[in-house]
């Protein structure tokens, strides 16, 4: 019995000593330069962008959701057309959303747009990114949700509730592992 406790303590000590290395293994930071570039350009914390990419596609630039969202930040083709029009991209086609540079540029711009729409509130912007801007306005207007992170259970879409929680958790992980 004593040997198993000693083994467990040694194992826990080894894990504690290697927590950052283990964390970086499970939470990689691919496309770092691209995320920093467009994060800076559009005023979005690059660690938040990394958390969104991890949550949306697990850094798979070729990801395609069952609903048709594409690339790292899982942008719907219709949203891609709208973003392209807003930022003056004349030759946009949906397949370009598989390009990490274009996808992150569009996703960072869109998140920045949503933050402005919702008075710089990142929680509301994340809810809109996942659940749609119109839905978030309705939830707030109809007092279905206060818009506060402490009241996420009020959000009518379970997927959006879980999405916000997961992105916020992942953001904390990226901030801890990579900020210094």
Report on the biggest sheet.
Answer: none
**Secondary structural class:** mainly alpha
Q: What helical percentage do the residues reach?
A: 55-70%
CATH architecture title:
Orthogonal Bundle
Poorly predicted sequence stretches spanning 5 or more consecutive residues: none
CATH topology: Lysozyme
Percentage beta strand: under 5%
Number of separate domains: 1
CATH class: Mainly Alpha
What does this structure look like?
The structure is a single chain. The chain has a single domain, classed as Lysozyme (Orthogonal Bundle), CATH 1.10.530.10. 32% of the residues are buried. The longest helix is centred in the C-terminal third of the chain and has 21 residues, at 158-178. Helix 7 (122-131) crosses helix 9 (158-178). It has nine helices and no strands. The chain has 180 residues and is mostly helical. The radius of gyration is 19 Å and the shape is globular.
